[in-house]
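Technical appendix A lists one of the benchmark inputs used to test multi-chain prediction within the project. The record comprises two sequence entries:
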Amino acid sequence: MKKSLGRRLFLGCNLVFLALLSLMCLMPILHILSISFSSGSAASAGKVLLWPVEFTPAAYQNVFGKPEYLRAFWVTIQRVVLGTAISMFLTILTAYPLSKETHQFGMRTFYAWIFVFTILFNGGLIPWYMTIKAVGLIDSIWALVLPGAVQVFNIILLLNFYRNLPKELEESSRIDGAGHFTTLWKIYAPLSLPALATTGLFTIVWHWNSWFDGMILMNHPDHYPLQTFLQSIIIKMDLRFLKSQDIELMQKLSDRTSKAAQIFVAAFPILVIYPVLQRFFIKGIVMGSVKE
Amino acid sequence: MQKIRKIGLALTLILSLGVTACSSKTADTGSAEPKAAGQPAAAKEGGVIEISTVRAQDPYLKFDEGENFDKNAVYDAYEKDIGVRIKNQWVVDGTVDRPQFQEKLKMAITTNDIPDFFPATPAQVQQLIEADMIQDLTSVYDQYASDETKEFMQKDGGLQMKSGTFDGKLMAIPQTGNPFAPQLVWVRSDWLKKLNLPEPKTMQDLMNIMEAFATKDPGGTGKSYGIALNKKFDEGALGLVGFLNGYHAYLNQWIDDGNGGLMYSDIQPQMKEALRGLQDMFKKGLIDPEFAVKDMQKESELIFSNKIGVLYGAEWTPAHLAQGAVKDGKVVQEWSVYRLPSIDGTEASTQIELGTNSYYVVSKKAKHPEALIKLLNQWIAIDNHQTTPEQKVYEFGKDLKEKGNNYWLLNPVMAFNLTSDNGDVLPKAIETKDAGLPKTKDQKTRFERAMKYVNGEDISMWWEYLISGPKGAVSNIPYLKEHNLFHQNKFYGAPTPTMVEKREISNRKRDEIFLKIIMNQVPIDEFDKFVEEWKKLGGDDITKEVNEWYAKNK
């Protein structure tokens, strides 16, 4: 079982390459982390690279003492929980009928194409905004949750998964007297746990990261989700038209350590969720695609 | 049985979702019914009129317990004092000139859902006039503006008001500001002393200083440069404008062509000379070779870490420098400030703009356009002379005293002094510690801050001392005014059609060529090619349009 030289060379190169790649992904996070733990003057003088200079947790005390930040965090948590729950519920409910054959569900192809159509075309920003405004969702948490509740990509993923489940499962549950709902919730849903975890992760990350809808649809900063709030503090001021009254504000704006701390705290939950859900992840995507 | 119950549960869930979704706040647009408002509905005496607007919530505005942007002491005071109830259609985080506000405003304009009044950029004003969405304020202003307001708004000779006037109609009220904001040169004075160098009186002096700073490395860091520049030429600090002005070249301005017309400053021979100067400096290693990819904050790292000791910047530059200059309650970098040194015998003029880039406009649908003027009257009155102690509420909120909560930011309409005598008053007041001299609110705040530094109470207020103190930034302004060393842009109209279309491209082209010349990647004569290209790229059309405007507005 001795490996040939070429093979070992390949493995070695591969290892180095992957190590470099992961290092490249890690560096920015490490950099932000060490800025957040450094003193303000060291950070603004550009002395901080990958290790905190003049270590201080002051930035984190500052962040957790900020009511706006915590409020935005809370909005995001609401949004993720509500949004993921609703979205997953709708995904399961939509994927099940669409996974049936045409002889079971006559309009299947028609409905499937309608869903696919929405992936390819959308009305654009202004109609999107006007619709949400017209149905009265503006400035409420539902504006962040409902417009994106039907994730067609997730539906397709789950649909393919259902199609690959043995038909006998459905037939036998039918024989035992189960209707469609029982079959879906008692048989299909538990079996599709890996696929659900995958689509769930997609949804969580999507909800966690979106900021644009919060900015456009919310009428009060108190209702901003975290990423919208972060975006508003990180974007730079236009200094060309600085009024003398703004000077004092500008002085505080250049607070890099606090910004870094806020970015890190915001990214942390997702960093934690990924490894936990990852074991389902690969299984979930692959399972829908391969037939035996 | 169980099955039915489960389905029932699911259905209830769905229904309750739908219900809560719909019941949660029916759209609180509060937009006025689209009634033609040709005549301002006569406000009943003593009655309260309502006007809606949109606001940006500055991160440094701190609300008192129980107050928020919709319900606060300042809004209450306006309602009580002048009978105007202000209603926020929406509020965003940040400031008016940031993308958050601009995106949302753009959306409101596109969907024709604008509030009664709001602040707009010059380009938006133009767009709103073309779309016929805002109303003519001429008669309302005449009728309701107080004599004080009328005088106040004309203090700059009427230019700013004129910029809000289109075809003789006052369509937009400028948020006035003081245009006299000079560029100055900032030099590390502790290094000057260390290397025994004279103060920079001429450009040659400054060149010598930069060269000495770069070669003798007074910061002891091993790698120093002469001057700090950043990728944005027109940035308020670390920009290029001050240097160009030293060569009598001006960035992005319209200047007298000597024949009664206007010409564009970027393509003049003075600009070529200034670029030649920069190229020479680059060759000598006085400029950080990476400046073209660094923004102001990034390039500033070199200043804070003692590698650069010269930069150009506006009067507020010390507030930026303080990040590196004050450490642990001690001043570790000493700076001094000088007027722009000139390349020849003629003194350098510092280029300035109109002084405003934001205008209040009133929607066609608004029923009470006069409310805007009333708000303006009240702001001008309370900002310039407070007659009763209760009026402090507009500045500090219900407790009537300074708590650092920036309550003045709540005022929905603001206009700032078009001239300022800070330069005459503050340096003298701070030198003699005479608290009787500062008169305006701004002067008093600045005086107090500088005094904290002078008395050693708060060393971090160092920056205010360098701005307002003796030999500080503003102390140069009286001299500049007296000797007519402010160079005003002669064009202050809304962007012309070709400008809107081509400006973006031609500016990018300019930045690219200028950077290449400065970084010695192309010879200086490339500038002549740029001039030709600019003319072909719509420059000639723009010049024509600007001159047409100039003929009308001279």
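The first strand of chain B starts at residue 49 and ends at 57. The CA atoms of residues 256 and 262 of chain B lie 5 Å apart. Comparable benchmark entries are summarised in Table A2.
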